[in-house]
Amino acid sequence: MSVISRVALLGRAGLDTVSALGRSGIFLSNALLGRTRFGNSFALLLKQLYSVGVLSLAITIVSGLFIGMVLALQGYNILVGYGSEQAVGQMVALTMLRELGPVVAALLFAGRAGSALTAEIGLMKATEQLSSMEMIGVDPLKYVIAPRLWAGFISLPLLTMIFCVVGIWGGSLVAVDWLGVYSGSYWSNMQNSVEFVDDVLNGMVKAVVFAFVVTWIAVFQGYDCEPTSEGISRATTRTVVYASLAVLGLDFILTALMF
Amino acid sequence: MTDSSDYIVDLQQITFRRGSRLIFDGVDIRIPRGKVTGIMGPSGCGKTTLLRLIGAQLRPDSGSIWVNGQNIPELGREQLFAARKHMGMLFQSGALFTDLSVFENVAFPLRVHTELSEAMVRDLVLLKLQAVGLRGARDLMPDELSGGMQRRVALARAIALDPQLMMYDEPFVGQDPISMGVLVRLIRLLNDALGLTSIVVSHDLAETASIADYLYVVGDGQVLGQGTPDELMNSDNPRIRQFMQGEPDGPVPFHYQAPDYLADLLHREQK
Are A137 and B88 within 8 A, CB to CB? Predict the structure, then answer.
């Protein structure tokens, strides 16, 4: 391949990326702005909250529990060497609230709900359900996309809270109930060191940002995919990859700004 | 703008490309109001594209598409969705909403566009389902229906809001003889009984010719011919004759554009 061809390919890739970014911006504004005239829009949102949020509860709770337990176990093994095992509760809580809670919950959400959103919307496109909705005079951006976007925005911060709470409880199961750390120390050290604004609120800000980005990527990939089985498969993969990279990259930026 | 109310759709000098491929090159098509108009042509000539242009799911590169006095490509998003309430389209696949029952599929346009009572919605849905012979299938899910039944449910849904213009995309493909006969009769019956205008895109010659008042034959990005079915059957134009009589050899090539066959076979290193 000649140098010119390589430059042309690079240019094409750049143009495609800018074009996709533009399309996704227009897509988002069309979906979220303007009037929604469907009387049952709350019912549509509830349905999506169930499939996006409630159905992600199991994986979130189980993962949160195990991550909290592992954190406590590792933390105890290190801290006990310094005679500071009483600080394990503080360590678990700060790690969960500041970093692992928002990040891992978002990664799990991208894998569980994000991929499902992309595949569902992609399949609706491939089977012409979105086209038929358009021809009925119903805007799929308002009827299909907007409820899923809002459901994602609402669900992930709530799932993150649940993830953190379960993780901290899992940490206490290991540290207090198994390894014998005094429960008063576990909880009171946590209470003394965790600040509501610095730790809890900043963690929730991260969760809100991740919810916005992951859900946006997921629904856009589904809506913009090539309407074939291969196209849906590629879009689903792209959702998980792009959303995971976006979460990790944004986490670094947000952490640098917040802490 | 078209100055005649005799035509519900007026396509003027439509040019449309898909990538580098020219699908329509300055095409003019007028659809008479209240009639069944067939758009025919070989596979891949852009018949479905034509319906998608009229429904504004695709935008032409140039030209205007007047539907009921509105130039469709120039409409804003809100106006476009309002205009589509007066159009119905039967997709080749049926395109039923797979998470809704037959009843809810037909009720969908009524629920989102009207504030009718539940009793009224029920009555209207049953009326539409009765028209397509599937009132008894109201509680079934789309995956429990055959392809032909799905298309009939989709037809009931498409006429739920009593549109002025009905567009049928290859309605006869993959139908058994009974379903085919039912659909052919239904299209004509609904057009006359509900006072619709119908556009039937198909390459099923006999069926389309049997119900159409007027036919267009498209191919090579052009309108090859137009007229009543009888006029086209007796056309002297070799392209029209080849299509209407189903001859494999003629001015319309059977093969997609390709290099020389023998040279192609001998160059084995190429894919």
Answer: no
